[in-house]
Design brief:
The protein is an alpha/beta fold and 234 residues long. The chain is 33% helix and 25% strand. It has a six-stranded mixed beta sheet. The chain has a four-stranded antiparallel beta sheet with strand order 2-1-4-5, covered by helices on one side. Helix 6 packs parallel to helix 7. It is globular and about 50 Å long. The structure holds adenosine-5'-triphosphate (ATP) and magnesium ion (MG). Adenosine-5'-triphosphate binds next to helix 1.
């Protein structure tokens, strides 16, 4: 087997982030993190500890001030803008706290949006968005706009959008923060099914102990540093 097959899915090496050089506040102070394929891992830590910063850097939405991010053994933090957007479109899915759906588009159109950016033809997009909405249990809501959906349903549309292009990794920043605890638990059920049945790796942040308890590994950040890394027996 080639060495490539054994490379971790994601590896950060010495990742530092200083937002404004003048303020000299380091949001991340040398983070070394390895995420293997198939993980269902949470990032925990108090407000301001660097969870969103780390997710954004791993997701290539932001660049580290120092250090590197590798994906499948290949350094991605130095790719140019076009290469990065191509990488994101194919390899990553994002779920945000505030769903980030496009209000004028239907659930189906929101779900298929990454495929529009990839230039996939409409008939194929429709088929894939139908499948993705079915996976998240919203096949009967395909024509609804976000304002006609509950928060939990909107977040499930966001998950459908995140999985439509079959990414290896989904990054989710506080995906349950705007949901009540029951709806949040249902979203975690869905994420867990996608992890188990479709092999999608998840890295998600949360403040909520009930959410953290669902993770198989919890990585704790404090003041921009990794403070603990616990793997749960389940
Ligand atoms: N765009 C920005 N410009 C300047 N400083 C920032 C910016 N984003 C975050 N920070 C700072 O970086 C540090 C880490 O912030 P980050 O948002 O990563 O924390 P977090 O762990 O996600 O917090 P929360 O749990 O509140 O979401 C904080 O001190 C924050 O004030
Ligand atoms: Mg945050």
């Amino acid at each position: 087997m080639s060495k490539h097959l054994h490379a971790p899915l994601v590896q950060t090496h010495g990742v530092e982030k200083v937002y404004a050089a003048a303020s000299k506040i380091a949001a991340l102070k040398g983070v070394d993190l390895i995420v293997e394929r198939g993980e269902f891992t949470a990032l925990a830590g108090p407000s301001g500890s660097g969870k969103s910063t780390l997710l954004n850097i791993i997701g290539t939405l932001d660049r580290p001030t120092k250090g590197t991010v590798s994906y499948d053994g290949k350094v991605i933090s130095t790719l140019d803008v076009d290469e990065l957007s191509d990488f994101r479109l194919h390899a990553l899915g994002f779920v945000f706290q505030s769903y980030n759906l496009i209000p004028v588009l239907t659930a189906a159109e929101n779900a298929e949006y990454p495929l529009v950016l990839q230039g996939v033809e409409p008939a194929k997009r429709r088929k894939l968005s139908h499948e993705a909405l079915k996976l998240v249990g919203l096949e009967h809501y395909a024509e609804r706009r976000p304002d006609m959906l509950s928060g939990g349903q909107q977040q499930r549309v966001a998950v459908a959008r995140a999985i439509i292009h079959r990414p290896s990794l989904i990054l989710a920043d506080e995906p349950t923060a705007n949901l009540d605890s029951k709806t949040g638990a249902q979203l975690l059920d869905l994420m867990e099914d996608l992890n188990k049945d479709h092999g999608i790796t998840f890295l998600f942040s949360s403040h909520d102990q009930a959410v953290l308890e669902r993770a198989r590994r919890v990585v704790r950040l404090q003041d921009g540093e990794l403070k603990a890394d616990e793997v749960r027996a389940r």
